[in-house]
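User: Sequence in, structure out. Go.
Assistant: Echoing your sequence, followed by the structure tokens.
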Amino acid sequence: MQFQSTDSYVAPPDLTVAVNAAVALERPLLVKGEPGTGKTELARQVAQSLGMEMVEWNIKSTTKAQQGLYEYDAVSRLRDSQLGDERVNDVKNYIRKGKLWQAFEAGKKVVLLIDEVDKADIEFPNDLLQELDKMEFHVYETGETIRAKHRPVVIITSNNEKELPDAFLRR
């Protein structure tokens, strides 16, 4: 399973080597560059070339790392409890799966694109490190641990708008 250029995308040899190394080593690939230089398209082409689905997480300035795991909607649960809704008895009804959770539970290996990581606050990349290293996380509301069935091919893009933390870059 090797990434190569496609009919619609010509990848330079050094980029092809970097992508294939990341796939073989099962380590995230950080792609930095100016906006519009094809970083997101690279992830799409990697998915297409390797015959994988892609899970795309577009980061905004307000995005928190927790949102990639899951979000617990306590307000809806409170409202439903006041209305006597039976759904309130199962907390899982109020958990929304994030993009990391979707990639971790996929039935086969996927490409996980974390797009424009530098848009988020400075703590965001560091908050992702443990989940990306261990490929698992704990859901406190349900007491379950979510583990990746298949380690996704992780591609992280950055527009160089902000410096990324050294600890993040080392990994």
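User: And one key feature?
Assistant: The CA atoms of residues 9 and 45 lie 7 Å apart.
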